[in-house]
Amino acid sequence: MVCLPAAPLALRRQLGLWLLVGLCLSAGYALEKKVIKGKVGAKVGLPCCYEIPSSESLQNYRVYWQKNTTDVVLAYSEGKMISTPKNRTEMNETNLTLWISPVKILDSGPYQCIVQHLRTSQNSVVVCEEAVTLFVTADFTEPNITTEVSADSCELTEMVVRCSSHGGFPKPKISGTLNNVSVVWNASWVSKSSLSPYNVTGTLWLNVTEDISITCSIENDGFSKSTSLFLKKTNECIVPTVPPSYNVITASTLIIISFIVAIALTARYLQRHVRSRCCKPRDAVEEDVKECMKPPLTSKMTSETSSV
Hints:
By secondary structure, the protein is α+β, with helices and mostly antiparallel strands. It has four helices and 17 strands.
């Protein structure tokens, strides 16, 4: 703040005029920084710094719309178009707004509106000169999350997780969470030029030991799109059966063979014994029967003792 209590009135007026000029210059600088945003495919209007009064018409003016200070987009003089308009452009003949439809990413950049008042055919005065920047954006597709198992075991699963999106502008940021905890993606971007759509891919390497929830977000120019994926740890540990060694197999085989041989020998012995019993002479059989019918020796002795 400037205090001039003792300054002459003329000096104070001069300082006030300088202050007013400074404010105007500041306002002009702010206007030069004006930014208009539009999305691909939409209709976008770039405002001019002057509006023709109702008492006049476009015939009293010369209007130039140009891009990058050299490329003429539209030009009017005395109410007539004096340049071939760029495709998809037109101008309002009252407020001099430049309309572009449908807008493309390549339309991004600085524009300038210059208005001259034609007081006479030989004399013109610049009444307006303003710069405005067009910033075109394009939406990204919904993020797509894919997974690939690189190694699996009873304790954990090694997995590669990828999140991808494409067709957006400008260059986006990729972020996300792992079980509601922020995670940093290893991101890569692909674009043909600085004014071409971007494709973005983020990669994570995870050791999954439990069920997890993954969220991937694509952000650009204040807009965000997110996708979530739930991964369930379902692998169960199964201990493989160890095949028996060669020595165990050999011993088991010998035992089985010995058992079979023993059974065969026993059966053969029983068969011979039965045949030998069946094939004795009749006399021998009768003798055996008589022998069996004889009373025991102890019984005979007991009878003789009783008679005495």
